[in-house]
């Protein structure tokens, strides 16, 4: 990581810049402060290379791009219109379950556990939606298999209500949530299911036993539908290639403390005229410069700006001073050594949206307030 003091400029507008590049501890603690406000316990260290990383769902990209184009005062900052629910954080919580088999009462079934770690949500967050998405990517094993026409799977989804030990009666510990058949075609098929209340119950420690997905291959030929009865051992392989299953839980939640208006002045163009009077200055923060490019997906950087300049006597109206600041400049002008000038600080900030990987490798889209300085004033 190449340390860069840029973000500190925002925090230390009126202090002399005593931070030095060698002051690594100070930088670390500032980084922690920022990560904490993003709801992260530490700097995410996503596993693997950038290429091997979990891809960003196209729906999230779309939402990120549309949030970038939000016009002034348009839309409620805490509503996710794509899902029609309250929220300012959208996570694609990834499935951590394993493929298992032989646990089921059904001999020819293949089972997959689904597990979504909901403790990535902070306690303060209110969960508005948890929507399960299961995608079935089917690539026929052979040309012959493709020629046999569309294949179908009977899919049953259970919630596990208590921990199950191998060999125990698994059926007693689960409740059926959904049962349907899925046609397998070269285009991915998918199932979505609202699991909001279950997702909420998974947030309690020790209460998340996950889900079980039970797959039973169905033949295309109605005559062959029954051979999967127990006892009739039709081989699953190689006549039937199981699809690759990709499951994620879209969790939309609301951090009620981050719900002020999303007013944004569309592309603030700051003048570049030289002046030493308090005003907003251009500052582009490149996340690469702070060493965050491996976990922040987008944007790669943004125009953050900062406030800098003097608050001289007499304080003109354009410096947006408080009555207090006006009096302070007056006192300062009478005795510069006893009282400093007021500080040039941000008085209006606007939010940006960020797309990043959290500590669990989930993709998160979140709106962050107070990321861009729009206006400065003497305070
Ligand atoms: C879930 O995530 C939390 C926070 O990242 C972690 O501490 C915990 O170990 C995870 N639990 C499981 C079962 O993976
Ligand atoms: C003070 O606020 C006005 C708008 O309210 C703005 O145009 C001006 O740039 C602000 N002054 C500074 C120093 O940013």
> Any low-confidence stretches, pLDDT <50, length ≥5?
1-13, 222-238
Strand order of the largest sheet: 9-6-11-3-18-17-14
* Spatial gap, N to C terminus: 35 Å
Q: Name the average pLDDT.
A: 80
Radius of gyration: 28 Å
Proportion of helical residues: 10-25%
Number of contiguous helices: 6
Main pleated-sheet profile: 7 strands, antiparallel
Number of strands: 18
Structural class: alpha+beta
Care to give the gist of this entry?
Helix content is about 15%, strand content about 30%. The protein has helices spanning about 5-10, 25-35, 60-70, 145, 195-200, 325-335; strands spanning about 80, 85, 90-95, 100, 110-115, 125-135, 150-160, 175-185, 190-195, 210-220, 245-255, 280, 285, 295-300, 300-305, 305-310, 345-355, 365-379.
List keywords for this structure.
single chain, 379 residues, alpha+beta, seven-stranded antiparallel β-sheet, five-stranded antiparallel β-sheet, 6 helices, 18 strands, binds 2-acetamido-2-deoxy-beta-D-glucopyranose
Explain what you see.
This protein has helices spanning 6-11, 24-37, 58-68, 143-147, 196-201, 323-334, and strands at residues 79-80, 85-86, 89-94, 99-100, 110-114, 126-137, 151-160, 174-184, 189-194, 211-218, 244-254, 279-281, 284-286, 296-298, 301-303, 306-308, 344-357, 363-378. The strands form 5 sheets. Strands 9-6-11-3-18-17-14 form a 7-stranded antiparallel beta sheet. Strand 1 (79-80) and strand 2 form a beta hairpin. Helices cover 14% and strands 32% of the residues. The longest helix is centred in the N-terminal third of the chain and has 14 residues, at 24-37. The protein starts with 5 loop residues before the first helix and ends with a strand. The protein binds 2-acetamido-2-deoxy-beta-D-glucopyranose (2 copies).
């Amino acid at each position: 990581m190449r340390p860069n003091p840029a973000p500190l400029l925002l925090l230390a507008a009126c202090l002399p810049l005593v931070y030095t590049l060698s002051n690594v501890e100070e930088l670390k603690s500032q980084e922690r402060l920022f990560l904490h406000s993003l709801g992260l316990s530490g700097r995410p260290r996503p596993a693997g290379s950038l290429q091997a990383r979990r891809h960003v769902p196209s729906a999230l990209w779309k939402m990120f791009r549309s949030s970038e184009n939000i016009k002034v005062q348009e839309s409620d900052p805490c509503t996710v219109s794509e899902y029609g629910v309250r929220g300012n954080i959208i996570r694609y919580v990834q499935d951590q379950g394993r493929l298992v088999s032989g646990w089921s009462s059904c001999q020819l079934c293949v089972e997959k556990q689904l597990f979504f770690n909901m403790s990535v949500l902070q306690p303060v967050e209110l969960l508005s939606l948890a929507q399960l998405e299961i995608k079935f990517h089917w690539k026929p094993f052979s040309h012959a298999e493709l020629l046999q026409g569309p294949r179908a799977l009977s899919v049953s989804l259970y919630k596990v209500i208590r921990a199950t030990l191998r060999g125990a009666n698994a059926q007693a510990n689960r409740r059926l949530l959904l049962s349907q058949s899925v046609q397998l075609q070269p285009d991915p098929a998918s199932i979505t299911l609202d699991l909001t209340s279950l997702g909420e119950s998974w947030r309690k420690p020790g209460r998340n036993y996950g889900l079980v997905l039970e797959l039973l291959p169905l033949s295309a030929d109605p005559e062959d539908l029954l051979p999967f009865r127990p006892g009739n051992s039709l081989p699953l392989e190689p006549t039937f290639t199981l699809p690759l299953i990709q499951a994620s839980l879209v969790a939309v939640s609301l951090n009620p403390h981050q719900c002020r208006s999303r007013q944004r002045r569309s592309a603030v163009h700051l003048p570049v005229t030289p002046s030493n009077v308090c005003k907003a200055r251009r500052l582009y923060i490149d996340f690469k410069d702070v060493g965050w490019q491996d976990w922040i997906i987008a944007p790669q950087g943004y125009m953050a700006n900062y406030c800098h300049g003097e608050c001289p006597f007499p304080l003109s109206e354009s410096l947006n001073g408080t009555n207090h600041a006006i009096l302070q400049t007056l006192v300062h002008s009478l005795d510069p050594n006893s009282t400093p000038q007021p500080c040039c600080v941000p008085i209006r900030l606007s939010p940006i949206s960020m797309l990043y990987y959290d500590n669990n490798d989930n993709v998160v889209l979140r709106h962050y307030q107070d990321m861009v300085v729009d206006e400065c004033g003497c305070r």
